[in-house]
Amino acid sequence: MRTLFSQFFVPIQRTTKQPLARLAIIGILAKLALDSVSVIMPASLEWLLMPFIPLLGIGSLVIWVAAVEKDEEKIDCELSEKEQPLQLSSMIGNIAFIVLIVLIASNVTVSLLGSSSMTIISMAIFDMLILAFIAITGDIFRILRRLLILRRSSSTKLTMRVTLLFVLAFLFSSTLHFVFGVVDAMAIVISSGGLAAVWFFLRLNQNDWINALPRKDKIFLLRRTIFSLFTCLLVPGLLIHDSVDGNNGLESAYMSIGFCVVFASGIYGAALSRLFFSILFSLPTAQFIDRRNYEVESLIELNRLALSDTSIENIVTTIMFRAMEATRAEGAWCEALAPQSSDYIVLASAVLTDEHIAWFHRSSEFESKVLRSQEQILISNVEDDHNLAYLAKFPQPLARSVLAMPLFAGQKRVAMLVLVKRDAYGFQGDDLRILRAFQHNVKIVLDNAKLLRESIENERIKRELSLASSMQNTMLPQKLPEIAEFDIDIRCVPAAEVGGDYYDFVQLENGMWCLIIGDVSGKGIPAAFYMAHVKGIVLSLAGMAKSPSDFLLKVNNALYGNMEKHAYITMSVCMFDTDAKELVLVRGGHCPTFLKQNRAVAVVTPKGLGIGLAANSLFVPTLQEMHIPYSEGDIAYFFTDGVSEAKNTIDEEFGYEPILDVLRGVQDGETSKVINETIMHEVRSFVGTAPQHDDITSVVVRCVQSKAQNSLVTSSSNGEYQTVER
Amino acid sequence: MSHNFDIQSTKQGNVQILRIKGFLDAHTAHLLEKAIEDKVKAGESFIIVNFKDLDYISSAGLGVFMVFIEEIRSNGGDIKLVEMKPKVFTVFDLLGFPMLFDILSNEQEALSKFQV
Hints:
The complex is a heterodimer of chains A (726) and B (116). Helices cover 55% and strands 14% of the residues of chain A. Chain A has helices at 2-16, 19-40, 46-49, 52-71, 85-113, 120-149, 156-180, 185-203, 208-211, 215-245, 249-282, 286-307, 312-327, 354-360, 364-371, 429-475, 524-542, 548-559, 616-622, 641-644, 657-664, 672-687; strands at residues 331-337, 344-350, 377-379, 401-409, 412-421, 486-493, 501-507, 513-520, 569-577, 582-588, 593-597, 600-604, 625-629, 635-639, 696-703. Chain A has a five-stranded antiparallel β-sheet with strand order 2-1-5-4-3, sandwiched between helices. A five-stranded antiparallel β-sheet of chain A has the order 6-15-14-11-12. In chain A, strands 7-8-9-10-13 form a five-stranded antiparallel β-sheet, with helices on one face. Chain A contains 22 helices and 15 strands. Chain A is elongated and about 140 Å long. In chain A, helix 7 (156-180) runs antiparallel to helix 11 (249-282). Chain B is of the alpha/beta class. Chain B has one domain: STAS domain (Transcription Regulator spoIIAA, 2-Layer Sandwich), CATH 3.30.750. In chain B, 41% of the residues lie in helices and 33% in strands. In chain B, a hairpin with a 2-residue loop joins strand 1 and strand 2. The interface between A and B is medium-sized, with 27 and 19 residues.
């Protein structure tokens, strides 16, 4: 009821928004006023008003048509949902229904009041009827126009103009005949009206849109059209019946309006009957059109899926329902098979329960023949194969025809889609063909989803690595401590995002500063993880250690047995003993230390095992602590194997020699920073464009001042230092 | 960074000999680990690893030998390393491996040590 109500008001509402239509309404209201006056006026003066009454009504209609003509200019190619042909056509049906209701209601009212004498009330009702009819006529005319110009051709405008010409001819001649009593005009009335209807019927041949409608919409539209057609015939019938009764002048004026209505109904009738036949003839092919529509829709939906970041499960579910729709299957499920075992995971199912699906899996024959197939399988009748006949024997028959389609992502079969029908021979060859076309698109969607997922995963890992990298950076000292008498410079260049190199400064129990440089075996996340572990151990043990060797054996004790067997750490510890004026050096399997003293450069390699390789029972006896007296200008160089094993593009190693050369060439007064920069420059120019495959840590320690020259320095000619056994 | 790495295994009496070739680093270490693991699982306790054709070893490569040594020694066996190039030996030496492993000059020497 509500929709009917709004249907009635929409055209009127739309009418009032157009300037021309407003004019028409003013005209109609003026006519109403004239009607009222004519009742009060003496009958002898009525003839004065007579021409105005139909002319105003007819004028309103003409203005209306012109308004509609103007409306056409606004129509562009994009149709809103309300302007789709189906909606437009069904609107005609609704409006026609309203007209019928109003007419019947008014007829009843008029006959109750007495149809022979025109009272002011019956006249007013009749006027209201005309008003509503004109508004509705305009709207129906507009709708027909829209339908007509859906497939606009060069002759569309001509059709409309000619129709309008017929309309005007009809209006003019009927005015002549009915109002001024020109009898001969009746022939023009009938011929122009008839011609207009025939012309419109013939020209309204642009009904292609009907072909594209789904079957159910066609049937809906057919019912609407029959109804509208029926109303179109009924409306003029009722009007003529009413008008024929009257014989005074005023009523004959109304008759001209009545004829307008008849004429308009004729035109609608022509349009509607044309529509009716178009629909009727397109019904037999509706199924194929439906299928074509379905294919286009699936393609659109699959494309949408391909572009969204939805999960494989979502995609598979959509595909399953789409395939069900396409083949009109009664049940379906989609499962992923474990590659070796016979386990399966149901990704999605429709109608069928887990129990049903388990029943399908009862036979290994079905599993091997259908569920693991690499190609599409169609079983038209399971009862033809005694191995599969069990499928029809579930408490209720489960499936007599089965259609299975594997889904691929890349070369990999990701899932199996199974469609079933209860009837034998339920699927046709055509269904198989459709699914095949479908399968290709599905593959694209799944490929896309897989790629998308991988790139998201990559992005996540990248983010985590960069987070790990910045966390690791905070584990290295942010600021070097001020150590009296020493000028220290450190460079650290990680290879990947995170690395296994470690350096730190700690104070031992005696308050002496120690440089720690270490390298965790391996690379990447595992190495970084151990490095964090080492950092914790170093910080907690340093304050308790009496000497560098004591410190190292404590670290070994803490780590041995607490790491994976293949993991170990190399570490050198150098204590700056500013009281004894010596460097105390221990080496746990780490790279040697280079020393420059008195212009001689030496490679210092105290004995010591890598940390975490052996228990302290073996570690302690083999650990050697070296005490190296220092004086102003002495240089100690510490590094990790990332420096000495830096490789160039032809896989040569940087080695020790270039570093020793740099140290030999150091001039007095060169700061650690300058020296380290020189070494790093050498490394960079050696490596060139080759990728860095290991972390690089490079530490230059230079003694800047020392109060007393220590004469205990003993340096043998070959550069080997005497060592003090611990 | 796909360097060649290859393992050839032969058996002499109850001694398993693995001849390794190419680059032993973080990318190839798992291959050697798998090879030794297979031998240990098969009950082999006397293993010689020949480094004659090994050009490079990294820290990750060294770690492999630590994985099984305890188990093998507890079974009364050993892993002996032979014919290392000087450069490869330097890496083992820096880490103190000579204190943990028998590093010998050739297979014969290792075999005779196993016989004793």
